[in-house]
Amino acid sequence: MSTAMNFGSKSFKPRPPDKGSFPLDHFGECKAFKEKFMKCLRDNSFDNSQCRLQSKDYLECRMENQLMAKEPLERLGFRDLMDPPLSQADQNTKP
């Protein structure tokens, strides 16, 4: 019995990357944010909990430049870094 490899029988169908996979930043649009994040990691013995603000900024840059799908930051684990919505009392005291 011979096994013939017929690559023409199945066509390749591209699919979007799985969550967590995204294109490389070939044009360096978010390089400064990445460098700040990497420096923070090095300065903090790679304890990423100390670099959450830099991580958030980097992911925001990637989303703004279509280098990853837009996601609410709350869903990416940054709920505690978000500005709280203005309460009705705060809105009434604004000029």
UniProtKB/TrEMBL annotation:
| Residues in CHCH domain copies | 30-64
**Cellular location of this protein?**
Cytoplasm
Domain of life according to the entry: Eukaryota
Q: Which GO terms describe its cellular component?
A: mitochondrial intermembrane space
User: A Pfam family in this protein?
Assistant: CHCH
Alphabetical list of InterPro entries matching this protein: CHCH, COX19, Cys_alpha_HP_mot_SF
| UniProt keyword terms in alphabetical order | Cytoplasm, Disulfide bond
Alphabetized SUPFAM superfamilies for the sequence: Cysteine alpha-hairpin motif (SSF47072)
GO annotation (BP), single:
mitochondrial respiratory chain complex IV assembly
Region (Disordered) spans which residues? Answer: 1-21, 76-95
Q: Which family does it belong to?
A: Belongs to the COX19 family.
- State the name under which the record lists this protein: Cytochrome c oxidase assembly protein COX19
What is the taxonomic lineage of the source species?
Eukaryota, Metazoa, Chordata, Craniata, Vertebrata
